[in-house]
Structure formats: C-alpha cells, structure tokens
Amino acid sequence: MKLTRRHLLAALPALGAAGLGAGFVRMLHGLNQGHFDPRAINTPLTGQPVPDFPTLSPLPDAPALPGLARENFQSLKQPVLLFIWASWCLPCVEEIPFIRQLATSLVNRTAPLALWGLCYKDQPASAARWLEQAGNPFTRLGMDQEGQAAIDWGVTGVPEAFLIMPAPQTGGRIVWHRTGGLTDALYQAHIRPHLEGTP
Amino acid sequence: MRRLLLAFFLLLFTIPASLAVDTPDEMLPDPALEQKAQQIGQQLRCLVCQNESIEESSAPLARDLRHIVRQQLQQGHSPKDIEAWMVQRYGEFIRLRPAFYAVTALLWLMPVLSLMVALGLARRLWRRSAPSPAPLTPEERRTLDSLLKKD
Question: Which of A156, A88, A86 is nearest to A120 (CA)?
Fold first, then answer.
C-alpha cells in the first residue's frame, strides 16, 4: 500500500490519542505506586535557603527543649529534619511511632540528623501532654500558635516535613519538603540518600 | 417572563459579592480597600480546598491568608507585591490565573494555536472540495445532443 499524505494526516489524531492514552496509563500507574499525587501541592521552597520566619517560643514548662528561630539554622553542624505537627492532628498520631523509632536510632549511632519540631496552631498544654504521652523525639520545638511562621515555610497543613542541609553562606538549605505523614519507606527513599555524604 | 429572566440574571451578579469573608469583622473598614482585597483574594487558590479561592473558602489557612492580604494592603503593598509574596511561599500553584512564562506558555497559547490549526485545515478542505468540472469534450457534446433530441 502506498503511503499518501492523506494517510499521514489521518494518522495524526490517532497518534495524538495514543499519546494521551499512554500519559493517562502512566499517571494511573504513578497513583498506584504512590509517586504521583494529584492533590500534592508543589513545594517551591525545595532548593531554597531557610525562609525568614518569626522566632517561635518554646513550650513554657520544658527547659530542656529550646524554641525555634531563623538563627538556629545559621550554624548547623548536621542536617535537620523539621516536622510540622499538632496535637489535634490525627495523621500526626499515626506518624509518631516512626519518628520515635527514628529518634532512638539516631541517639544510638552518633546522630547524623537532628529532629526539630514546629507545633502548628496548638495550645501549649495540649502539646506538652501529647509529647509526654508519645515520648518527645525532638531536640528543638517552636510553638507557632498563630500559624504565621508555618505560612512563611509554605505549610498548607499538618503533618509536613522538611529536610534542611547545612549551608554556611545562606544558613541552611531546604532539600526536601513533603506534605503528609512520614513513613520509613519515604525516609529510605528521600532522606537517607541525602545523609550519606555528611559526616 | 422577561422580568423574571432579568431578576434571575441580576441574582447571578449578586452571588460573587456574597461569597466573600466568613465574618464581617474580617473586612477592612475602607470599602475601596476591602474591594481591592477581595479582588486579590479571588485570584488566590485556597491550598486546602483547592478549587476555591481564599475569598470563598472557610478553611483556617484561607482565613489566615485573607488576613495577610488585608494587612499588607493596609501597609501600602501593591496587589502585585502581595501575589509575589504568596507565590514565593506556595508556588505558582496559588495563582488561580497562572502567570505567562515558559512553563505556562503552552497553556495560554493553546486556544490560539488550535484555532490556527483548525483554520488551516478548514482552508485546505475548502479548496480541495470544489474543483470546477472540466468542459465537455466534442464527443460528449454530440452524445448529449443526440440524447436531448430523442425526447
């Protein structure tokens, strides 16, 4: 059969439809595998320095747990995993066993990673009670009762997590940001690779 | 009937105004500035209820962002500055009307492109479909004449 221009023209829409179909299958596959989330919000802070945010006070009755300020990121010696959480947040309850386990494993082998917390729109009393019950995994905790600092971090809800690497010039650089709870699978896939080069 | 239709259309126009803020005390005392705030807010996506603007949504984050829009307007920031402030934190996604740049160029140009393609195709089809018939050969003329004479 001779290929005419007419055949080529007729093939165009078919090819277009096939392309769309392939894209759609890819999308569905991604949904199944968990690396495509249609509701995911893009994270413009990834790759950026730590944003300016108002200094957050610590919990009133926890002398061993300092608050959180922009300056704390200036002189980082190790990467920081910053958790945004609240005592009223159910997914945070699901996430806490993993964070606890992570905290213990970090204490056991000389910590390459610090766990810091930002407590979003919470009462200090409820936050303190929650930490007491769950076991506090954090070495720093800032209370963001108004939720203003969270907005500077581009937080849309709780839980969220940021991985910040030491950067002498800018004072900490965000290399990873995710909305939703943190699991061991996510840790292995996204956080662990960043930690291998650090002392 | 006509009046009814008119009433209906007038009603349609009142809805956007009534969607605004949750409580009146959120609103700015200056009506002109408040209107400006609403215009800005209607172009910003609520990150919680993603198909609503922050002016329409009752999510706490939307309320916080509405408050920030009004605060910054009162401090004399321009709508452009406020949008840039939001985009810096939440990305281009927060704009309900994306800005025109390399990534969104195809999005904005697609209607024009598809119209151009459609016009081009239509022109081709138009040209091809109407070739004028060739004049009759002398032989055909004779046959036709003889057929006509038979009647």
Answer: A86
Question: What's the gap in Å between the CA of A106 and the closest CA on chain B?
Answer: 31
- Please, which residues have CB within 8 angstroms of residue A117's CB and are 6 or more apart in sequence? A68, A82, A83, A84, A85, A137, A138, A140, A141, A142
B146 burial (CB, 10 Å; 0-12 / 13-18 / 19+) is exposed
- Local structure of A176: helix, strand or coil: strand
Instruction: Quickly tell me which residue has 């959180």 as its tokens.
Output: A68
Among chain B, residues having any CB pair with chain A shorter than 8 Å are 47-48, 50, 60-61, 64-65, 68, 87-93
| Per-residue tens of pLDDT for chain A, all 199 residues | 677 888 888 888 899 999 999 999 998 998 887 677 776 677 889 899 999 999 999 999 888 899 999 999 988 888 999 999 999 999 999 999 999 999 888 876 655 899 999 999 999 999 999 999 988 999 999 999 999 999 999 999 899 999 999 987 877 999 999 888 898 888 888 888 888 765 4
Estimate the crossing angle of helix A90-108 against helix A124-134, to 10 degrees.
50
Q: B interface mutation test: which of A6, A12, A120, A151 has the most B CBs within 10 A?
A: A151
pLDDT for B17? 46
Q: Are A154 and A181 in contact (CB under 8 A)?
A: no
Measured CA to CA, the distance from residue B149 to residue B151 in angstroms comes to: 6
From 1.10.8.640, 2.40.30.100, 3.40.50.970, 1.20.1440.230, which CATH number describes the B10-95 domain? 1.10.8.640
| CB-count exposure of residue A120 (10 Å: 0-12, 13-18, 19+) | buried
* pLDDT on residue B13: 56
Q: Are A69 and A149 in contact (CB under 8 A)?
A: no
Of B60, B65, B93, the CB nearest to A42: B93
Q: Where are the domains of chain B?
A: 10-95, 100-126
Mutate to test the interface with A, among B88, B110, B125 (most CBs of A within 10 A): B88
Nearest CA-CA partner of A162 in A182, A177, A140, A180: A177
